[in-house]
Write a structure and sequence with these properties.
The protein is mostly helical and 106 residues long. It has a single domain, classed as DNA polymerase, domain 1 (Orthogonal Bundle), CATH 1.10.150. Helix 3 crosses helix 4. The radius of gyration is 13 Å and the shape is globular. The relative contact order is 0.19. The mean pLDDT is 88.
Length: 106
């Protein structure tokens, strides 16, 4: 069972996704692209899995990450964030996003 209070190591099943994220955003995800990034992952990952990934990537609380993920899920993306998705997608494609989509199984 996953301990949400203490993340511990990243689950092995998420390491490829984490590596793709680190490759596409080596300096971190810019604030203006953050919601667009979540919007790209949400159709393929559960909210919990996405929150675990983000909590590890940003070294932040799982609950903070989950709140941000659920905000995008509940509210959708703004027009500006929808426009940003293509730029984020292009960065991810350079780091294996197409293969990730084919292999993805969360």
């Amino acid at each position: 069972m996953f301990d949400f209070q203490n993340l511990g190591p990243l689950p092995e099943s998420m390491k490829g996704t984490y590596d793709m994220l680190k490759c596409a955003f080596p300096e971190g995800i810019p604030d203006e692209e953050y919601k667009a990034f979540i919007g790209l992952l949400q159709p393929y990952m559960s909210n919990r899995a996405c929150a675990i990934l983000l909590a590890h990537f940003f070294s932040q609380s799982y609950f903070k990450s989950l709140s941000e993920v659920e905000e995008v899920w509940a509210d959708g993306l703004s027009t500006e964030d929808e426009k940003r998705k293509e730029g984020v997608r292009q960065k991810l494609l350079l780091c294996g996003y197409a293969k990730w989509l084919e292999e993805h199984d969360y």
